[in-house]
Hints:
Layout: E1 6-10, H1 20-37, E2 41-44, H2 58-68, E3 73-80, H3 86-99, E4 104-109, H4 117-123, H5 132-150, E5 157-162, H6 165-174, E6 178-180, H7 189-199, E7 211-219, H8 223-241, H9 252-256, H10 262-272, E8 276-278, H11 280-294, E9 298-302, H12 308-321
Parallel strand pairs: 1-2, 1-9, 2-3, 3-4, 4-5, 5-6, 6-7, 7-8, 7-9
Helix pairs in contact: 1-2, 1-12, 3-5, 6-7, 8-10
Protein name: MsnO8 family LLM class oxidoreductase
Family: To bacterial alkanal monooxygenase alpha and beta chains.
Pfam families: Bac_luciferase
Amino acid sequence: MIDVPLSALEVAMVQAGTRAVDTLRDTTAFAQRLDALGYRRLWYAEHHHSPAIGAFPPVVLTAHAAASTSAIRLGSGGVLAPNHAPIMLAEQFGTLAALHPDRIDLGIGRGPGTFDEATARALRRGAAATTDDEYRDDVAATLRFLVEEVALGTLPEPWLLASSEAGAALAARLGLPMAFAHHIRPDNTLAALDHYRAHFTPSPWCESPRVLVCVETVCAETEDEATWLAGPMNVIKAGLLKGHSETPFPSPEEASAHPFTAEERAGVAAFGAHQAYGTPETVLRRLAEVAKATGAEELMLVTPVYALAARLRSYELVKQHAVTP
């Protein structure tokens, strides 16, 4: 049983043997089905120049999904501040919030959204990597422009994305709700949340600490099927362990033939111990454990599996077996 709201993160994996346009078309059906299932929000992640993840701007996907759904909240998870002028973020998401009142979120993160340095420099038009102070100033400027420059009525709900204690410290200092990337840095989760809650400063955006935790979740009818579906992402993780970021997103059949080393298997298993894979009973138990350990007010599920039908089935099984507000 889960007694916190459930949301979803869309990373738009481009599957081996398909085209980016196929992934893009799937996002519409995905948003509509999650809307019908009653998920609270759906966020889109910003990525660039990856063979496995489509370079689909979160603001564009948010606008498209908002026009084809009726209730689910939509937004960025996140849009990456170093790649955008603060006033443009404020104008874009302020406009979306005016067109779709009380349904738009502006989740802001720091990473470049790419492992390729040339792409990162191109995104910043040749500028050097953003410093801590510059990132803080960009987030603060975006919030200021939302209020001072946009003035379109209902504002988007701002969130700060974090995967470390430094990100949690900034969220606390600015008085923003925080979305923590447990699906990326699970070892950092508890210390970061403790810091956030201990140092939180109330703001017009948020009166008290508010935490969303993102968990990698693969749910299927059987444990074996869930393991099969999780295989492609395990191949991606194994590549990242070796510093490789140019691996396409394989099919489950291709993943089953991947020659994992003992070190890769250990790394994948250690990561998976913090996530939620298996049957509905197993997944709901793991999600409840994460919610209890973190004190999260909301859980966001990311399900990077091959094929839209299998991905949607995972979200359906979780929602059907969960009891949520």
